Amino acid sequence: MHKATLPALRDRLGDALPASRRDRLAPIVFAGGLLAIGALLIKAKPRIGHVPQPKQFGDLPRRSRARRAALTTRDHVAPFAPTNVTDSLGRSLMLGGAALLLTRLLDEAAGRDGK
């Protein structure tokens, strides 16, 4: 069995990289898809993603101390809960798509090693 030396491995790796133009551009297409789907979710606001208000049992004061603490905590946590889950998913998809697109474009701008 022939053992490859380090320079031989570098040559083989250099032959394999960079990826074909199609493989290099695929992440850009994928990022565009993420951006488009995210924008569609934010724009459409499908009813299925609507989350009911957390105040289903009312706002009147509670008698027990534990229930009053739960009511106060609920009111402090509620602003962080999404009102439409699809909005949150859409924003996440757009953020991921933008990061992927920027990373890929900067990688292309950086070019090959040593050039």
Proportion of helical residues: 55-70%
**Overall pLDDT, averaged?**
80
How many DSSP E strands?
0
How do the SSEs run, as a string of H and E? HHHH
Number of domains: 1
Rg is 26 Å
**Residues in β-strands, percent:** under 5%
Assembly category: single chain
Total DSSP helices: 4
The assigned structural class equals: mainly alpha
Task: List low-pLDDT spans.
Answer: none
Question: What is the distance, rounded to the nearest whole angstrom, between the alpha carbons of the first and last residues?
Answer: 35 Å
Query: What best-fitting shape do the alpha-carbon axes yield?
Result: elongated
Biggest beta-sheet profile: none
What do you see in this structure?
This protein has 115 residues and is an all-alpha fold. It has one domain. The chain contains 4 helices and no strands. It has helices spanning 6-16, 21-44, 65-77, 85-110. It is elongated and about 80 Å long.
Characteristics:
mainly alpha, membrane, transmembrane helix, transmembrane, Ca-activated chloride channel family protein
